[in-house]
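Protocol step 4 of 6: record predicted structures for both targets in the notebook before any analysis. Target 1:
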Amino acid sequence: MRWSSAFIPTLKENPQEAEAVSHKLMVRAGLIRRLTAGAYTYLPMGYRVLRKTMDIIREEMDRAGAVELLMPALQPPELWKRTGRYDDMGDVMIKYTDRHGKEVALGPTHEEVVTDLVSGEARSYKDFPLCLYQVQTKFRDEIRPRFGVVRSCEFIMKDAYSFDVDAGSMEKSYKAMYDAYCRIFERCGLPYVAVEADPGLMGGTVSHEFMVPSEIGEDRIVVCASCGYAASVEIASVRPEEAPAGSAGRAGNIEDVVTPDKSTVRDVSGYLKVKPSEIIKTLIYMADNEPVAVLIRGDHDANETKIKNYLKARTLALADERRVKEVTGGPMGFSGPVGLSIRVLADTAVRGMAGAVTGANEKDKHIRNVTPGRDFSVTGWFDARVITGTDPCPKCGGGIEIRNAIEIGHTFKLGTKYSEPLNASFLDAKGRHRPVIMGCYGIGVNRIPAALIEASHDKDGIVWPASLSPCEVVVMPLKKGNKELADAAERIYEELKQAGVDVIIDDRERSPGIKFKDADLVGFPIQVIIGEKNLKDGKIEVKERASGKKDLVDKDALVEHVRAKLRVHFTLDIIR
């Protein structure tokens, strides 16, 4: 490949709309260009990275026994209505009406489509196990596309689906895909963490997310360095704790107190001179359109994923002002458990509280000295809060760290969530109809290069691993108009190509400074630098992008030297 014809429009300045480092560098390095909000063109260098990513994914999927197919992006909403996800997806699903008046959806994912396919083709236990995958463009109407290709409306996913006849077989399929994901992300050079996760709208029982820690990550994960525990904050369990020191002595008779315009924990705490940990927040939720009160200690945050899962609710949302008034008799911000007639649930940290402050279900009023069990009843105690960095590890009790992270992959044990409503069943060995047991496994293909850049860059640009770099080596003759240097560069370029090296030659009539800056910006792992003085001595300079290390190599030994460097690079990518 020749730089002069490769279409690599590099930029000196950061694009104004870019927030994330990956977005800035992908634009500046000539990898992508924005067409409209949430949609990007992959320029030649960016597309080469994307292709290498997809090649690694395909190799490991094939190695794990999955078989590739390609399903339509256009989907009939009827399938989604049968599984109940049509309403769950809401406005995220992009839909239109065709010329025949028929509604059509642009596929945000393909669980319904692949299940419908298998239900019509595989009907005997002898047809299983089966694992199908595709690399396909997906569409979602994101409320706020951001961070370049990290959160976009049009994106590329690898999604795989396993179909098994029993739980034991499903476990083998799940492990095969889990292990394949580990190999994929290792080969891509990603510093990933596999964490326990909530299945969410996908459904099922067990799921794992594969995360790359990053400041721009919109997900948060809990990691314990002592025992290796890792989980999404959404599901990380919290060890039960004792009541806050001093609260046990505040168990006198309840009394109303006036709190004018004080509706937040912070305001009430300051006004009544109590700690936030001595306040009980009463949150009114609508769970499948039924009101329920959830009690949380004032210094904690409610975990809506845990609450939804505890209630086994399909939908969960905080009640609006009107519903709060109907349920409690008072305005939002002054709710309390005393006298409530609806179901009351509470986080375990509330259990040992005594003499607490709560809302009085009346404007500008709170109640002092409230004690659970004496002044109100709780119908269910459970872990209902968000874990914090000061909590102990739920597994070993050691210290934990909470990090932001980018989700790059997700695996799910779906069970029969889709096979039952879509009639994906089979005849077992005894001639009985049974639903197929499914698993689902997704990778955000676009996110892999972006997540890698977030984790691997410096002040000069991208630092690619050899496995994903648009080219492994760049050959750079430094002096403009010097035929001897140009001829030597061409000869080395051809020799490297013949040796199977993925190489680009910077044949532009540009200054050495521009060539160095562009090579560092795009991030090629190895730079072969041909200078006038070194060439006269029969030497070629070889520089590693990541370390900055430079070697002077005999020109006759150059090819083998570069190949040896690349072998080390690919090994590091795998074990990193």
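Target 2:
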Amino acid sequence: MANGKRMLRLGAAAIVLAAMLGFQMEALGMFDGASGATARPDVIMIDTIARLEEPDQPAAVFMHDAHTKALKDQGMSCEACHKKDVKGKMALTFNRVQEDGQPALSAAELKSVYHDGCISCHVKSAGKGYKSGPKAGECRGCHQERPAVPAARAEAGMDNTLHAMHWNSKLIQADAGQRTNCGSCHHIYDEKAKKTVYEKDKEETCRACHTESPAKPVTLATEAAFHNQCVTCHQSLIEKKAEKSGPVACADCHGDKGLAARKGAEAKALAAMGGTLPRLPRKQPDAALMAVAPLNKDAKSTGMAPVAFDHKFHETKTDTCRACHHKSVQACSSCHTPLGVEKGGFVTLDQAMHDVKNKRSCVGCHASEQTRPQCAGCHGLRPAGKALTQAACKTCHNAPVKDAQGMLMAAAPKEIRAEAAAAVIAARPEHQARVAVDAIPEFVNIGVIAQDYKASRMPHRKIVLKLYDGMKDSGLAANFHSVPEAMCQGCHHNAPATLNPPTCASCHAKPFTREDEGRPGLKAAYHGQCMGCHKAMGIEKPAATNCVGCHEKKAN
């Protein structure tokens, strides 16, 4: 009898569990493909109440694009869930508009907004014969501790091409009295007027103010700011039946297919612009002189000459201004000072410019360029930090320290600094200086393992000319390979830049020993250098395992 009651209780529990799972799967099953475990970009975890009080339920799982499709199938639009404010702009909050000056809703009021709005819609949809979501009492259909469908969103940023598509667009209203439309998106907060206004030529990145944890008077965090600006604008264009409009579905920005489609659209737009982006109309400098002022009026200069920065050239080499200006588009020194301040995360100006591991730093970006196959053959086996020699410093730090009147350039007027920077940039070489062909040995015979194989006859001149050809369009090589013989150091890595470097055997003589830790023996040095170069440059022949590809086997 006891066993029978126990089985009865277990059976009842199983039925309840199955029913709960059924409710959950019914909620998920109303959307195509949602019942599987495949991640979706439109999955939103609604945890609004948790920000106000300790919730008694897990966050609610909401699939935005799936709901948009379900509403469209029933002849409804975004306004079924999103209201408009007094200016006619769609609010991104569900079934409510939070106007300025109004008190925020309490947790109980928010719960009513979601429960009344969602459940009533589900009941109506079911009454019309459509598949619908959970109804009253089916809490686990929405509130899931472990969502059956996880979220997976690709980052959707605005690169330079997409940006140009916007400020070139005739669909976006032009600024008052201007031919540009930048004021439709960019604004600053006017403390006196207590509102946002547009100020031409002082446009900032959105992230400069809309951070993850914004400080008053900024109210919107990064994600909310983008959605509030972009999605509502795109939706208004759709409502106006404009010729073109941007995406409003999550998958169109954050899904792999959506991103691929966007890249295709960008490629077409770029082709229509002649293959080159028009320059951003913000009056940014063509050339800038990066000079560090003394810490106080009595202090001497840092001792390093200023750097002439070709801003116009670098604009064409990046996909987005954020490649360098990760938050604000002000001068680097406005956040990164010689001693470091809180605004710049206590990263000093020296660290910001010279961190070899950070692609946003000058040195780090240049080092990443060295991974290109044309460069990697030499630089792949040469630590990037090793290139930071006194000669390398002078390649950048070579602008005038003082102006014609003897004033430190750091304190000179902006126009004088710009002229000095432009003059230095104009004097830079356009192409890598080359060693005369006749001065390059045509062949080099390497007979390290002559007891087993014939000496390797390396086509030295052919290799050198091939390397020169690979760097012919590289401005970095033209500037940093300061003398024609500099490229020789790619293989002769500890020798000075000379046409008569010491042989490899002068350093790599004995096999590896504890006394020479880190310095391989001669055979290992040759193989590591040659094979490493071939691998870095993607040269498939001869293969690393093909000994006779380099060493002809002896007849005996």
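Step 5 preliminary note on target 2. Residues 1-36 have pLDDT under 50 and may be disordered. The beta strands are 43-46, 60-63, 188-190, 195-197, 287-290, 307-310, 444-446, 456-458.
Proceed to step 6 after PI sign-off.
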